Amino acid sequence: MAEFHLNDVVEMKKQHPCGTNRWKIIRMGMDIRIKCEGCGHSIMMKRRDFEKKMKRVLASAEEE
Fold first, then answer.
1. Which of 1, 6, 23, 57 is the residue whose CA sits 20 to 30 A from 36?
2. What band does 47 get if pLDDT is binned at 50, 70 and 90?
3. What's the predicted TM-score (pTM) here?
4. Which residues have C-beta within 8 Å of that of residue 50, sequence separation ≥ 6?
5. Number of H helices, E strands in the chain
6. Residue 57 and residue 40 in contact, taking contact as beta carbons nearer than 8 Å
């Protein structure tokens, strides 16, 4: 299982309709809210669903 943290930029399995596939994690808990880096649209999903749909971490917040 991939490890992810608040403010990480992740790649999801499916591309967003705006054409980008970079999402920033802006809230974590039982649910996770992610924000599209392209258009700014944000969605909330259950942690279990997020873990299934996430492909990899592109940029870790700890590196910055």
1. 1
2. very high
3. 0.86
4. 32, 34
5. 1, 5
6. no
